[in-house]
Amino acid sequence: MNFVIFCLILMVTFGVCVGIPASLKLHPKFKYADGGNGIENQYMVFFRNGFTKFGAQMHFYKLKSTQNIRQGHIPKNSPCTSGTMISDLISLTMFYVISCPSVRILHLLLTDYDIKKIVQDTVVSTQQCSGIEPYTLPNPSNLYWNLDRINQENPSPLDGFFSVLGNGVAVDLYIIDSGIRSQHQEFTNRIDSAGYNFVDVNSPPEDDHIEGHGTRVSGIAAGSTTGVCKMVTIIPLKVVDQNGRGTSSDTIAAIGKVKELKAIRKRPSVINVSLAAPTFDELDKAVTSAVQDGIFVSVSAGNNGVPSTRQSPARAAMAFTVASVDKNDDLSPKSNYGPGVDITAPGDDIYSASNTCDDCYSRGDGTSFASPQAAGVAACYLSVYPTATVPQVEAYLKNGSWKNKIGNIARGKRARTPNRILRSNKC
What we know:
single chain; alpha/beta; Alpha-Beta Plaits; Rossmann fold; 25% helix; elongated; disordered N terminus; Peptidase_S8_His-AS; hydrolase; protease
């Protein structure tokens, strides 16, 4: 049965026609909903600009008296067996809803000078946030205050829960640091053999640093209990020795290694660099090159209480530079600051894996431990949106952050620091 015959039967029987002929869809005053989101047989009829409420009532009177149309509440999902209905005037934007009109009535309205346009009604729904991974923090949960903080809007009371968008599966997280204690229980079956030791090329990238810096950083970004992104693949690149010293050349080489591995592995990739050097153009250029290859690079702002632009790679324009806040949402006293900072994250008394034994833990302070939290959120986000560009990841972190919470940067030398605290679970 063709469309015209079908419509004629419906019009004879019920006075309505379900479905819209192509000629009507092309009318300049008619807007048909695209994407399958339109409500069949229901339309919003907008009056022209300047039309009055009195004029609307006269319009309704004419429709009801000449077209056999009823006015009142339009039931949801009702079949078109009871004829055409119109709603009362919705005066906010001067329109009304018409349900189950015939094609003849629609044409009549479209040729009415007082009608500006007719728009097919559309479905609205709640935005269910898929991909949020919830976790109950182990007791005592206050050890993990940083995870609790980035999960909720205010610093207190903490609720003992953590959640993050994504889980990190099929994403590579490169930790350029002092290596990692590979057998630690926080990293079971998640350290990839692609890691490399630039300090001693004949040895694996194990963490022999006196304070276990790389292990701590890895635990904060990706530990199974202490970390943000609990299922990400960890690739340690060791550029710092047991005394905490490394070279810019090794750091640049490590960034180059990441670019090579990404080209081979073809997976979303994140780098964390919780290291500081005097301003050095070549190191900054290496970060820029990685970002241009689609690699998100999170770096620590530094702990000298000066503008972040006074050290590399924190000053690199394309790096994502992370400063530190304390448990009261104040910028940490030693944290670097200024407009070169992209975001802040908890950086005081951060609990994480230690390199002293396979089930040992320790605490630490500083932007070194703020940056890996941003890296972890970015890595988890990329597991949900694996084709996201670096600017899109940065926009997600910035736009979704907890804003205007930092209390001690309103004036003085810190005043130009962005008032943003990392959020882990923005949908």
